Amino acid sequence: MVASSSLLKLQDLIQEIREAKTQAQEREVIQKECAHIRASFRDGDPLHRHRQLAKLLYVHLLGYPAHFGQMECLKLIASPRFTDKRLGYLGAMLLLDERQDAHLLITNSIKNDLSQGIQAVQGLALCTLSATGSAEMCRDLATEVEKLLLQPSAYVRKKAVLTAVHMIRKVPELSNIFLPPCAQLLHEHHHGILLGTITLITELCERSPAALKHFRKMVPQLVHILRTLVTTGYSTEHSISGVSDPFLQVQILRLLRILGRNHEESSETMNDLLAQVATNTDTSRNAGNAVLFETVLTIMDIRSAAGLRVLAVNILGRFLLNSDRNIRYVALTSLLRLVQSDHSAVQRHRPTVVECLREPDVSLSRRALELSLALVNSSNVQAMTQELQGFLESCPPDLQADCASGILLAAERFAPTKRWHIDTTLRVLMTAGTHVRDDAVANLTQLIGGAQELHAYSVRRLYSALAEDISQQPLVQVATWCIGEYGDLLLEGSCEETEPLQVEEEEVLALLERVLQSHMSLPATRGYALTALVKLSTRLRGDNNRIRQVVSIYSSCLDVELQQRAVEYNTLFRKYDHMRAAILEKIPLVERGSSQVDEEAKESKETAQLSEAAPVPTEPEASKLLDLLDLLDGPSGDAQHPPPLDPTPGGALIHLLNLPCAPPPPAPIPHLRVFEREGLQLDLSFVRPPGTPTLLLITVTATNTSGGDVTHFICQAAVPKSFQLQLQAPSGDTVPAQGGLPMTQLLRILNPKKAPLRLKLRLTYNHFGQSVQEIFEVNNLPVETWQ
Fold first, then answer.
1. Looking at the 3D structure of the chain, how many domains does it have?
2. Residues 560, 442 share a domain
3. Shortest CA distance to 256 belongs to which of 292, 215, 288?
4. Region Disordered: start and end of each range (predicted)?
């Protein structure tokens, strides 16, 4: 027979709960027992309080409310009996946290227990403090913990070190208290104490520049400890798979990485040791691979020798050949981080990286794709592009967009010839046209338009591709544009660079009509096709009645944009047929990045500067201008020279046009760079419209010089309440790698009081497979933005 419920033991309660056949029965048992526990707490039975709390903690672990036992935990902690303290501290760790004020009530009890000489009680207090200690508790008890760091008992010292780690994480300004004991604790031979001390020093160095400077003096001692681990071993009981204490090795290597970062002397001290660890560690077991990986990270993060960095990259190259997918993933991620600083060393492992593209694991193939795109340069662009195009044909759908965009960017940067660039872009559009970026169509049309010698070749290639497949919309748009511009070259049939292709006018028109009627064509694609048909009316020799009939059909189209185009083209045919040939001439496209564009931009800039700083025009110059204007009335010889003009800026034009003298334009507001991290840069440019001085237009420009695309980029802004902010839609959510097309977003800020402007920005994005969020405030905006 079961005992009365108020004296029910924990084992009996567990048995009753497990015997419940339904959840409703379980709730009934627990509610009944919780009622008896509450009654026992109210009666204040000190003998059975710890037993009732033990049952309540089990109920809490099952997910039922147990907050009414918090004060009982405090009573048990204050009890002199060890059995009560043990349950009290356990309950405090489970039921109390920083969000409840009750946890502050145990500060005095913990302080009293830490000052006692009973090791078990001190251990309980330290465990509770490290698990639930708030910032206030850490400040109040830091002195007591610092004293326990040098206690003779290794058990207490180990728990005190772990508690100190928690205190530094909660209150970094307490670092000065724990600096002196750490130097003595490094001489410990107890494994747990030494491992905890290394962790404590790591936390101190990460949070305090003074601590970092202090512990750099101990680099030789840390090097000695690690060398002892590698050569003779620390203790056999902590060796794993033949690797001597890998956990301690990894922790020391992380600390050395922090101490050697941007410090020449410390890096020089640890160079030989790192080479020894990298060459002597067994890689047949996972423990050895973990040590090697930390060694590689340390080598790449400090100012190590060039040969050592090559050794680190070679280790990652060996990781790529490992059968474990996790190790290969780690190697790919690490090589992606190193490709900017050690490009030539990473380049040696390019064949192995390309092999990883064929991995069935999508996470591995994605990492391999990012690294392969980062390895493309002018010397290997053709071979790498061929490999990437082969991967594009068989890669998963969620990787096609990244692969296609990467190939197009690489071709744009490193294309050896224009024809190769066009062929590469066409192949990408034919394979994964629906996954390319929005600017791919504009870029290709501009590229073709600037290569006059390739017009016939391009239009033939595009016509053949369009005849085979009209499902890839970007390809269809480029092809229809090219046919409309250079349709006459398509019908000539003379192109040495392609196979002979005989095309009739009716075939071209039928193909464009097929695009117009296809259910796969987007409205924009139909607009391209309709415009191409109208342009062909001036390029084909046959009758235009078929073209006019097709155009008239779309005059009643439901799509407003297409209908408007058709109506305008119909009007062109009916009323302005004599002007049609001139209006539909070939569009003169200037080659992107050509010297002509750069020269014209430079010349216009210099002209603008000279016009601002130029002196007043002399009389002959003004006379020449007037003579030029008088050509409409009579010969220049009969013109009368006017008297000298007033010496005002632009006086000649002002007097000629009889206009009032306008004030000079305001000086441009300087740009401002507000963010830079791992190749991602954020710049702000400012414009204040002259008509509305209280309005400020800020253009946010994000550029990316790293080897990986920045995806899912979101920029959010906030201003004080006295301002009005309007965020326009960004140009995209991807900032392409290696200096690709920047992403822009416009901010409209209304400042009616002309108060000093403060701007708070939040950036969220994915870079190198990691999700990043940055929140910062911009307070150094130019005064011209608000005055």
1. 2
2. yes
3. 215
4. 594-619
DSSP H stretches of helix in 518-618: 523-539, 545-553, 560-574, 580-583, 595-613
The partner residues of 717 in beta bridges, in order of sequence, read 761
CA atoms lying within 13 Å on the CB side of residue 29: 19
Residue holding tokens 């040696």? 348
End-of-domain residue from the set 584, 612, 646: 584
Indicate left, alpha or beta for 424 from its phi (over 0: left) and psi (-120 to 50: alpha): alpha
Contact call for residues 270 and 223 (beta carbons, < 8 A): yes
Helix (H, G, I), strand (E, B) or coil at 658: coil
Task: Assign 783 a pLDDT band (cuts: 50, 70, 90).
Answer: confident
**Of 104, 168, 105, residue with least CA distance to 136:** 104
Count of C-beta atoms within a 10 Å radius of residue 142: 18
The secondary structure of 105-127 as a DSSP string is GGHHHHHHHHHSS-HHHHHHHHH
CB atoms within 10 A of CB 134: 18
Which H or E run contains 761?
strand 759-767
Helix axes 286-301, 246-260, angle to 10 degrees: 10
Q: What residues contact 408, with CB distance under 8 A and at least 6 apart?
A: 425, 428, 436, 437, 440, 443
pLDDT at residue 590 in the model: 56
Number of helices and strands (H, E) in the chain?
Answer: 35, 8
Strand partners, 676: 681
Q: How far apart are CA 744 and CA 687, in angstroms?
A: 15
Q: Return the C-alpha torsion angle 110, 111, 113, 119, nearest 10.
A: 100
Residue type, position 103, single letter: H
Side by side, the strands of the sheet bearing 770-778 are 710-718, 759-767, 770-778
- In DSSP terms, 724 is beta-bridged to 750
Q: Has residue 531 been placed in a domain?
A: yes
Could you give phi then psi for residue 635, rounded to 5 degrees? -65, 150
Among candidate residues 483, 419, 515, 377, the one with its CA nearest the CA of residue 427: 419
Would you place residue 600 in the very low, low, confident or very high pLDDT band (cuts 50, 70, 90)?
A: very low
Whether 735 is covered by a domain: the verdict is yes
Quick one: tokens of 157? 């010292």
Confidence grade of residue 492 (pLDDT, cut at 50, 70, 90): confident
Write the CATH number for 778.
2.60.40.1230
Q: What is this structure's pTM?
A: 0.64
What pLDDT digit, counting tens, does each position of 72-117 carry? 888 888 888 898 889 999 988 888 877 777 777 888 888 988 988 7
- Is residue 555 within 8 A of residue 566, CB to CB? The reply is yes
**Domain that includes residue 515, residue range:** 437-584
Nearest of 440, 443, 374, 444 to residue 738 by alpha carbon: 374
Domain end, chosen from 542, 563, 584, is at 584
**Rounded Cα distance, 440 and 433, in Å:** 9
For 732, counting Cβ atoms within 10 Å of its Cβ (0-12 exposed, 13-18 middle, 19+ buried), the class is middle
Q: What is the rounded CA–CA span in Å between residue 226 and residue 475?
A: 60
CA nearest to 86, candidates 118, 60, 62: 118
Same domain, 580 and 676: no
Instruction: Give me the phi and psi of 650, to 5 degrees please.
Output: 65, 30
Distance of alpha carbon 90 from alpha carbon 56, whole angstroms? 12
Give yes or no for a contact between 60 and 51, defined as CB atoms under 8 angstroms apart: no
In a domain, 452, yes or no: yes
Place of tokens 């001390």: 197
- Residue 768 φ/ψ region, left for φ over 0, alpha for ψ in the -120 to 50 degree band, beta for the rest: left
If one counts every other C-beta atom within 10 angstroms of the C-beta of residue 186, the result is: 18
Retrieve residue 639's tokens.
């013109």
Let me know if residue 305 belongs to a domain: no
Indicate the residue type of 722. S
